[in-house]
Design brief:
With 84 residues, this protein is mainly α. The two termini are 14 Å apart. The model has no long low-confidence stretch (mean pLDDT 86).
Amino acid sequence: MVRVLGVILAAALAALALYASRFWLWRLWEGNLGGVELLRPQGGVVRQAARGTEAAPYDIVLWAIGAFLVLSLVQWVWGRVFRG
């Protein structure tokens, strides 16, 4: 059961990481999700957040660093919760 839960969590994190990147291709909803400007149907959350700043040309680097940090945190929490 723990393995199935891990696979589901990994798939959800992969989908979220893809949505945050500039490589999201699908349009799953119309308008902004819940009225939140960053949750556009086109994805690209990091690019949208970095727009207008000096970090804008490096949005893919920011995305990679953020994805690495989130995955490291999830791995640490997973190890603490499911020791073994």
